[in-house]
Amino acid sequence: MPIREIPMYIDGQAVASQSQEWRDVVNPATQEVVARVPFCSAEEVDRAVASAKQAFKTWRKVPLGKRMRIMLKLQALIRDHTEELAALITEEHGKTLPDAEGEVGRGLEVVEHACSITSLQLGELAENAANEVDVYTLNQPLGVGAGITAFNFPIMLPCFMFPLAIATGNTFVLKPSEQDPSSTMRLVELAHEAGIPAGVLNVVHGGPDVANQIADHPDIKALSFIGSSHVGTLLYNRAAAAGKRMQSMMGAKNHCVVMPDANRSQAINNLLGSAFGAAGQRCMANSVVVLVGEARAWLEDIVEGARNMKVGPGTQRDADLGPLVSPAARDRVVRLIGAGEQEGATLALDGRGCQVAGYPDGNFVGPTVFADVTAEMTIYREEIFGPVLCVVSVDTLDEAIEFINANPNGNGTSIFTNSGWVARRFETDIDVGQVGINVPIPVPVAYFSFTGSRGSKLGDLGPNGKQAIQFWTQTKTVTARWFEPENVSSGINSTISLH
Questions:
Q1: Per UniProt, which keywords does this protein have (predicted)?
Q2: Which domains does the chain have, with CATH numbers?
């Protein structure tokens, strides 16, 4: 199979980078090199930004109805190419094909939401706020926006960014993850096939140098980032110092509370899918289960359910989880499992040394379960980003809420219960941005905003929903009075009141 050379996308065309620095893109199930991606030069990044800046002059004036029709075409193209996009995700990321298809579907939801731009970007009007004075607001685009995405959702995360940014009249520069860029590039091709004009959506590739250049660039007005807490914090501070609007959606340590009155099989199946799907490489994975009261007796069933999950290559449709994205990711997970053992957690199920027939070189780690986990342990404090589930036992709901609220992160949490009172108490008192009630991964539908909080988020506004419209636009308030041609002035008004 020929090795793809990943291009940049500048001014409406795929452009070969002249960079001397390239990185191999590797199939994590086989270690086969499937593509090569450039680390773009500073000049190439400047070229992409300049293209977006020039295109903004005309794109911002394109009627809302035309932008809407482009988004309608894009959502149809994504739907028609779901299998192709999913196959590219699986080849470079490793997640199973059903999971990859689900990712495309969640990205598609955002594009479908962007199709409502004709009503989403409306301002407000107060007629006769004073004598024959009208006050109204305009929600106008900022200019050039940018996005930097993590590897774990190469279709969904770009969809969290550029569709709404472009639909609101901005132009865009995207830097996808260098670990699995092919599906993102195919998405960008489909966007141009849908009718996005040259220069409106551009793509560059690279590592920290390119990310820093984007954060510093004076012609980029807003930056959206999804990735690790370390990188997100650095970029947030850097972009804020450069005067940019910035949102950083970052790391997590999500908890799933299981009450003894919950439906036992439903709760266990849901928490296992959440913890081990995509090999745990989700910022919204429930990596900690808090068993309350008599539910602590369910540990054996949780372990048995995890033991029966099937590990395989992503192309194997009946597999529950595939490989980790890279050997480095696998080695880090293995190291953290060892740290859990050394620090006294009970290793109830060990996924190290997982072997998959026919794939001896895959980055596989099987489902791993630790019991007797405490807040001081490394496996609890760090985001493992792998198929490792930590089990904590407490006596009461109050203890569970206190334990979760003490964690510095606030991305997502969930509770399984059949009590409406317990669920309402939990949603009220828990200090986490996104809550699931009998839903293990509470990522909201795209017309609601992604609202992680505390250590999981920097910036007031998140992706998707109304907050995204606010993030990608600036409000201009107009106070207007029109005099009749024969109107005679009533004299000088030196006060601040409107007469």
A1: NAD, Oxidoreductase
A2: 4-250+469-478 (3.40.605.10), 255-437 (3.40.309.10)
